[in-house]
Amino acid sequence: MEGSEQISRLFEYRVRLISESQGISAKSLLGKDMSIEVDLTTEKNGGGKRFLSGQVTQFTYIGRDGDFYSYESVLRPWLWHATRRSDFKIFQFKKVPDIIKEVLGPYGFSIEDKLSGEYREWAYIVQYGETDFNFVSRIMEQEGIYTFYEHHQGSHTLVLADDIGSHSPLPNGPSTIPYYPGSRAVHVHDEDFLDGWSFAEDIASGHFAADDYDFEKPKAYLETRQQQPAGHTEDSRELYDWPGGYTQMADGENYARVRIEQQKAQREVVQGEGNARNIAPGYLFTFSKYPRADQNKEYLIESAHYRFEENVRRSDGAGGSGASKRAGTDSPTTYRISFNAVPKSTAYRSQRITPKPHTTGPQTAVITGPAGEEIYTDEYGRVKVQFHWDRYGSMDENSSCWIRVSQTWAGSNYGSMHIPRIGQEVIVDFLNGDPDYPIITGRVYNAMQMPPWELPANKTQSGIKTRSSLGGAGGAGLKNGPGDANAIRFEDKKGQEQLWLHAQKDQLTEVEHDEDKWVGNDRRKVIDRDEFNTIHRDRTEIVDRNEKINVHGWRTEEVDLDETLTVHKSRHRTVDDSEDVSIGDNRKKSIGKIENVTIGLLKTQSIGIAYMQNVGIAKMANVGVVYNINVGLLMSTNVGMNKSTTVGSNETAKIGDTKATNVGKLYTLTVGGQEGGGSASQPPGAMNIVAPGETGGSGGGSASNITMDAKSITLTVGKSTLKLQDDGTISLNGHDYYTTLSGEKQVKVDGNITTRGANILDN
After folding, report:
1. Residues 274 and 389 in one domain
2. How far apart are CA 138 and CA 590, in angstroms?
3. Strands 111-113 and 155-161
4. Where a domain ends, among 401, 433, 464?
5. Are 328 and 429 part of one and the same domain?
6. Is there a single domain that holds both residue 100 and residue 184?
7. Cβ atoms of residues 230 and 201 within 8 Å
8. The predicted structure's pLDDT at residue 213
9. pLDDT at residue 327, rounded to an integer
10. Which domain holds residue 706?
């Protein structure tokens, strides 16, 4: 038997076997446990046994060996089966010891946990196409965990260790092994011993540094350092690791310590050789009787190579059917063991030799999230995906870690944002090619997620179209057509160039300074409901040709200060029903030439205090039926030259108190026709002036009355009447008086003149 075993490595033993049977089936042994029993009996230390147990992973028929048949079995640990299985699998929120047990547990073999350290919880770690063995080896080397085996009859146990306290002295045989060199060793028959011993020290890096980056704490200082120089020249070379695989300082410090211990574990190594049959990797022994006292101490066995021979067959010939073989009773059983060990005082760590797989390029995945959701994200806009290689994910919010999404622009509260939605296919790359650090760099269409418009028919179109969520309907999203979406689309077809902007519900535009718009041809705007415009300062609108505004309901316009309206030619305004104009203070109206006002029925003007009209040349008012002026207190009419009033029928003037008329030269009042009795076109008329008395009568009481017509003038005061006729007759209270006067007339009375008589005649 010959083979090797080492901490954190797969052992292999090749065992040569002989049998009288020629037909041993390999299938009957493959995958079965096989144990090699080693007798540890010595005269000095007594009896004992140890076992080397493993799984038969290869069984070879070698051929005939005399009267026997020769075979070879290759024994390996049950963990070797983990090299025959690979997988792509995601582990989330687990510690490495738990991941190891989850991966190796299904193999159904014994695992003993002798770990003493505290281990971080990994939010996300991926077995990326690796064999189970390579994966668990890699993550154990990362964390500073190593393994060795405890052998039993018919089985072996995988032991997880991380500290010298995980190891015990050799369980079978003596734990102290002496040194007997050269010729002295020939005479030692009562105990196992070592006859070869060498020790060496290498220059190893005595300094280690690592750093990393955490996007959630982008300015955090994460650099960690450890140093354990050996004390010789050139012992301070530094190993620098980036990325260090951590975002917490405590984790980084732990990894730095593990890395420096991995360097230190290989700095001082001894090699031993002898016949000590109980030497086994993963156990402690004490070395003794070496000439240099500093070597006589306790060591941890790291690896061992075994060569055992027992019952060796010797051939008398070349073999074949006629060759005779005999059992070598003169062939002693021999044991030869060589090994490597490190001082127990050195913190042992296995080396990092298992490479971490790297991705060879981007790949695609599908966005996932909780059932019933369309968008699933966190405060950083991260999303979750299901990779196409993932056989264990459930296409939900647990399918992956939160994955950052590359945007076209990302700043401090500014940039672009397009969150991939559940079901969309995205391009996933990996930072530094590390499958544990995915990042989404793009999105792609597929047969279930087609482009927003039909291709290649619309190959000149580009843009963005979203989908309303939750429950937005598919479709083009044009105006009131099917589809719930916001969109911006560019049509670049020559002669049909177009920019289309669609807001499924509300559109909000904010311009913090100036906005300029230029439309080379026509502009149309349709608002199905209301429009509100607020301008906090000035507004200027220029229409080079015509403007038409149709308001089918009511219109209100309010100006807090002044309004100026200038129309350089004509202005036409039509109000089909009523118009109310209310002016709180003054109103001034200037018309350069002519104003025509036509009122179909009635015009009423109410003026609180005064009303003044200035007409430069002429004013004419035509009233079809009635013209009524009511003045509450005072009315004054000033005419610079002539005033003419024409009344077609009757005119009535009613003065409540006093009327005064001042005529500078001549006052002419014509009633009816001309003097002399009128004419056919202008018939004679009459004039009646009444001054009502206290009783207010007309022609009675204390009233005064003047009646004039073409023939006479009658003056009535109270009960007295004086009448002058056109022939000169004067009647006083019905009595006529005739007077004929010529020549000189003078009547002077200083006192009374009284004339009485039935007949008084003077000539």
Report:
1. no
2. 98
3. parallel
4. 464
5. no
6. yes
7. yes
8. 96
9. 35
10. 701-734
pLDDT in the model for residue 739: 64
Are the beta carbons of 144 and 451 closer than 8 angstroms?
no
- Geometric angle at alpha carbon 670, from 666 and 671, rounded to 5°: 155
Picking from 675, 681, 663, 760, the residue whose alpha carbon sits closest to that of residue 710 is: 675
Number of H helices, E strands in the chain: 4, 37
Joined together, the tokens standing for residue 744 give: 């000189």
Phi-psi bin for 254: left (phi > 0), alpha (psi -120 to 50), beta? alpha
> From CA 390, how far away is CA 367, in angstroms rounded?
13
**Which CATH number goes with the domain that contains 419?**
2.40.50.230
**What would you report as the CA-atom Rg of the chain, rounded to the nearest whole angstrom?**
64
Indicate the DSSP class of residue 410.
B
* Total structural domains within the chain: 3
Q: How far is CA 227 from CA 210, 236, 301, 385, in A?
A: 12, 8, 25, 41
Q: Is the same domain home to 198 and 270?
A: yes
CA 687 – CA 674 distance, rounded (Å): 13
Apex 141 CA angle, 34 and 295, nearest 5: 80
Q: Which residues pair with 491 in a beta bridge?
A: 461, 498
Q: Average pLDDT for consecutive 10-residue bins of the chain (763 residues)?
A: 97 95 92 93 84 96 92 97 98 98 96 96 97 98 97 96 95 91 78 94 91 95 92 88 95 95 91 95 97 96 94 46 36 87 94 95 97 96 98 96 96 94 97 97 96 94 91 70 84 95 89 92 89 88 88 84 83 80 79 78 74 72 73 73 76 78 76 52 65 55 76 85 86 77 67 74 65
320: left (phi over 0), alpha (psi -120 to 50) or beta: left
Q: Name, in order, each residue with C-beta under 8 angstroms of 103's C-beta and a sequence gap of 6 or more.
A: 82, 127, 132, 135, 136
Q: Is residue 352 located within the same domain as residue 412? A: no
Question: The domain that contains 179 carries what CATH number?
Answer: 2.30.110.50
Distance from the Cα of residue 64 to its chain's centroid: 77
Structure token digits, residue 512: 């913090």
ω into residue 470 within 30 of 0, thus cis? yes
Which pLDDT value is given to residue 701? 53
> What 3-state DSSP class applies to 57?
strand
| Cα 436 from Cα 430, distance rounded (Å) | 8
